[in-house]
Write a structure and sequence with these properties.
Elements lengths: L4 H8 L10 H10 L6 H11 L7 E2 L5 E2 L7 H12 L6 E2 L1 E3 L2 E3 L3 E2 H8 L10 E5 L5 H8 L4 E5 L3 H13 L6 E4 L12 E7 L8 H9 L2 E12 L8 E2 L14 E2 L1 H10 L2 E11 L16 H4 E2 L2 E5 L7 E9 L4
Parallel strand pairs: 2-4, 3-6, 7-8, 7-10, 8-9, 10-11
Antiparallel strand pairs: 1-2, 4-5, 11-17, 12-13, 14-17, 15-16
Helix pairs in contact: 3-7
This protein binds S-adenosylmethionine.
S-adenosylmethionine binds next to helix 5.
GO biological process, one term: methylation
Pfam families: Methyltransf_9
GO molecular function: methyltransferase activity; transferase activity, transferring alkyl or aryl (other than methyl) groups
Length: 326
């Protein structure tokens, strides 16, 4: 079940202990809030899932917990039905007791584009801002991160994460907190901070970069992935209304503009390490995400344009360092 006390215990004796000045009050307020309509229903599902857990956890090249055949066919079917209660599953995939959660996104493809370019995660404290279901948190842990913390305001994604965590025996070094980045105090304690797929959802991207920087220790690494457009350092697309049907997209910079913003915020050693067009193989409808997806958001006769007429989604990964003299 959702349990923040174990996180408090883990950080009490760590370099994140100062977070305890503000975090418990914030999470108590979250727990007492009336905002999360379906949360009681999802918590009942999490309770039912407590009887399933496995020691077989493979986090290296995938997120696999429990092996096919480890539980009976009847229990597997029951588990599958319980996991479907958390529809829509957007970020994954997960393999749980032989059940393949084929999520809307091949988040493993994004990880494959990011991982070769970042400092090794072994023994690091990592923060994943906007972690979704927590898929990448598990991959970070699989790379040897000492502590992987995800933040995301979505109660559904918290429940998806908690389901996976319970099934794998509640790893005490992987946590999800239902907070937005703007709610964090400047912790200046993480070795690596990830912001993947979040910047364009923020109304103030420069403030977002400063908030990310505030979470890094001196010399720590920022890994930022975002939608981009072609153009020079002064090119930024601000959609009139929706972009690829998303109603919360604000700023899509060119790579040169993104690099300029990062430098302006004081990041050092700023570089773009990957650029990729998002395909309808990477983001699509599945049995686990039955709503519309990218194919429905592109012009039927011109997939290089969104249905609003903007350039189709293209994403880039940037890596930068927080200097030690800040
Ligand atoms: C496009 S998804 C990206 C998920 C994952 N990081 C990835 O790259 O696959 C954006 C995520 O950011 C979360 N988000 C939105 N506003 C946020 C905020 N203010 N702070 C942290 N996360 C936020 C959303 O709930 C959503 O899960």
């Amino acid at each position: 079940m959702i349990d923040f006390a174990s996180f408090y215990q883990v950080i009490a004796k760590s370099r994140l202990s100062h977070w305890l000045h503000t975090l418990p009050a914030q999470l108590n307020a979250w727990e007492n809030s009336e905002r999360h309509g379906n949360l009681p229903k999802w918590q009942r599902v999490l309770k039912k899932l407590e009887s399933y857990h496995s020691q077989n956890v493979n986090l290296h090249d995938r997120v696999e917990i429990g092996l096919p055949g480890e539980i009976s066919d009847g229990h597997t079917k029951k588990l599958e039905n319980l996991l479907q209660s958390f529809h829509p599953w957007r970020k994954g995939p997960f393999d749980l007791f032989g059940i393949h959660i084929d999520t809307e996104w091949r988040s493993d493809w994004k990880w494959d584009r990011v991982l070769p370019h970042i400092s090794p995660l072994k023994n690091r404290y990592v923060l994943d801002v906007g972690c979704g279901s927590g898929y990448h948190l598990w991959r970070m842990r699989g790379e040897g991160a000492e502590l992987a913390v995800g933040i995301d305001p979505s109660a559904l994604f918290l429940c998806q994460f908690t389901a996976v965590k319970q099934l794998g025996g509640n790893d005490p070094q992987v946590h999800f907190l239902p907070l937005g980045i703007q709610e964090l105090p400047p912790l200046r304690a993480f070795d690596t901070v990830f912001s993947m797929g979040v910047l364009y959802h923020r109304r103030s991207p420069i403030d977002h970069l400063y908030q990310l920087k505030d979470q890094l220790r001196d010399g720590g690494e920022l890994v930022l992935e975002t939608l981009i457009v072609d153009g020079d350092e002064n090119t930024v697309l601000v959609p009139d209304d929706r972009y690829a049907q998303m109603n919360n997209v604000w700023f899509l910079p060119s790579p040169a503009a993104m690099i300029k913003w990062l430098k302006k915020c004081g990041f050092q050693d700023v570089r773009m390490v990957d650029e990729a067009i998002t395909t309808t193989d990477e983001q699509r409808k599945t049995e686990w995400m039955r709503n519309d997806s990218l194919a429905q958001y592109l012009m039927p006769d011109d997939p290089t344009r969104t249905i609003e007429g903007y350039p189709a989604p293209k994403r880039a990964v940037f890596v930068a360092t927080r200097g030690s003299e800040d």
